[in-house]
Amino acid sequence: MSRPTTLGELKQSEFAKTGARSVKDELRANLIRKLEREETIFPDIVGYEDTVVPQIINAILARHNFILLGLRGQAKSRILRGLTTLLDKEMPIVAGSEINDNPFAPLSAYGKRLIAEQGDNTPIDWVGRDSRYVEKLATPDVTIADILGDVDPIKAARGGHILSDELTIHYGLLPRANRGIFAINELPDLAGKIQVGLFNIMQEGDVQIKGYPVRLPLDIMLVFTANPEDYTARGKIITPLKDRIGSEIITHYPQTVDHGVTITSQEAWTKREGSRAEVIIPGFIRQVIEQIAFEARKDQRIDKRSGVSQRLPISVTENALSNAERRAIVNKETAVVPRISDIHAALPSITGKLELEYEGEQQGAEKIARELIRKAAGRIYDQYFHGANVNRIVEWFNGGNSLRVGELDSDRSSLHDFKSVPDLVETVTRSRTIDSSRPGLIISACELLLEGLYAQKKISRSRERGYTKADPEPAQKHTGRFGRGWDDLSGVN
Fold it and tell me: The whole model's pTM is what?
């Protein structure tokens, strides 16, 4: 069935039954339909099923404007962009309208005049759902003209209009989002006078442009994001605007490592097109990388107010995989399997994402990042090797032996070195939770085991000699707040 192209045809179509429906009613109706069909509302969002998503559903059912409040990297912008799936596939507008005039109830002087002149012959255009979503990042330089509009002298001159005529207005982002969704990211960064303009048009539907009052009762869904820290660090949401936001919804980081692994697996670029080698990422490597973020979020040396973004494990995964890919290329191997040493090679993906407190600044981001890797590996080690007999392995190192793990060592040479450590490879292959079907997987698991022993201080590690016997007891460690510990003195990572 062809789409109507004139107002007369539109009046005879199915759309005439819903033509007067507001955008909030449209979102509500489509949401109800999805709920009745038991469809997933936000298919790409993981970990919010029982927390954030129900609150968003309630806000939409209540026809509320809402704000997502949370730290960086909590999928706030992605959720807002996902709201477009609740809009109709297409929407009719008066052809040529800058503000998506509803053919049954035009707002602009242009739309009203065109319908008055042409009646049922008024041409109709159709707008897709993605074009009905307008997003603006709030920055201090945003002006009223950007958001609401301004008088356009060129329009006035070409049309022979006086400047106070509504036909001379160049509409801003908000009017152009009419009959759609208007999103503002980092709302507190928006200047107070711009926020005033927002709540005025939300409540009363009118605005002044260059001193001329203009009635614009826009049909719009307003959604915002903000970081709690922004309320005091950079700006604030003015009280009248906050009062007009129907729902304030708190987002959060993944609450379990498994949720984090799922998100990172979904977002990280791991399908290396053009690579001749097969990419295999062991589950325990994914868990270690995710655990790094969890450890960082509770570390007292890292700023809690800034947060540790979910982008950290995503970037570390990509960087560690790249190091493994480089090793496979150099050694002409057919499989790319990341190891713990590849995670250490991905330090630039960690240090740049940590906002440190004063004590952390004194110790340095690199040292803290290495400690986070050690702690994360120790926790995942417990899941895979809890109860394993590692006495012979520890005794071998305590006997004065050492094992240096090179990040570019081939699978063949690495496996040969690991087999020199009594019971190391055998412990890995005996574990029912470790896939030891390939040499690369065995090597990666061996590194996890050694890193776990290092985390438990059963063995030590230095950059020069690799894994070695355990260091002396902490009695030798300096305990001053800014003193150097034994790991600083011995060169341990």
Answer: 0.85
